[in-house]
## 1
Amino acid sequence: MHVAIAGNIGAGKTTLTKLLAKHYKWEAQLEDVVDNPYLDDFYNQMERWSFNLQVYFLNSRFRQVAQIRESGKDIIQDRTIYEDAHIFAPNLHAMGLMTNRDFENYSSLFNLMESFVQGPDLLIYLRSSISNLVDQIHRRGREYENSISIDYLSRLNERYEAWIHGYNKGKLLIIDVDALNFVDNPEDLGSIINTIDAEINGLF
């Protein structure tokens, strides 16, 4: 079983991934943020490092998906291979932070990789307002995220909504996280788990 959590920066993907992994005894596949050699450079000089960063993420997530399918284990994944290709890379290109040449090269690479991977059995999308994202980003205090602008988050949110609207890789569950506090409120986490249980039971 392969479950994946999608959502904008600060939506709570990693936290929910860990909580659900613990509850269901699934193995968690987390996003490679700590060891990513490009993140600091990217946030300081986006135009120079955007292609390098996106290729690093693409490589990392393609490897993850291959390992998930080979392992035969029940795995929950923090962010999908699709988000980079449908949201982050096109956004950088549209903002003039990735050249046409690099974007075409990246897209060609993704299309090739996508032909070798399957979508998750269940995708959980965490929908969030910009104000909630900003609060969460400030609360966790990652230094390299200090320079993220509201305009950048808004553009990403628009692309997420467009992608989710046309998502067709498998079962989809949308959770509006603005009204939830699944970290401090066990009832909120419980309601999410109940909703997921219903989706999972429908898979079999």
## 2
Amino acid sequence: MRILLFGAGGKVGSALGPRLVDAGHEVTAVGRGDRVDPAGYEAAVDFTRPDAARANVERSLEARVPCVLGTTGVPDEELESLDDAARAAGVACFFAPNFALGAVLMMRFAAEAARHLPRAEIVELHHEAKLDAPSGTAKATASAMGGDVPIHSVRLPGLVAHQEVLLGGEGQLLTIRHDTTSREAFAPGVLLALERLGALPPGLTRGLDALL
């Protein structure tokens, strides 16, 4: 598959690019300020910044190129706009707040546990350069648990991406934790999204759990 990789020089993109190549894809790396015509590509992958992602994806959708969006911090109204653009173009656009398979399982387990324990809080910890807080994963977890779950955000050097869901009941505490220690953890999820992209309906599909 011929793929445009927006944010190829970033923290995720630099780890993801070689994995895409190893999987047999032909990758064109796009860095900040690069202008590339998406026409003729079979997919576009974006791991950039919230203020750049929308334009990258919109330009790709206008060229009828399906997209995989991994940039977090994109406002809901912009995601809805991308849904409209993808439907108008008749192509699929996939977004996930986290592409680590273990993180998706953590969210699923937390949603199930929230049905049985009365109180919960979320602690998410990320590297100091992460722009959005709370993280997209934490917000998605809270939503899956019913929405009214306090979230605590930590930004420190030495961290990559970590989340802990603490659920309390009378005389007991359940902790569900996922740690991403290397950004290579996102590659299997992106590869899965690319594999399923052609089977998705036009418009925006959200969440890696939709593919599992």
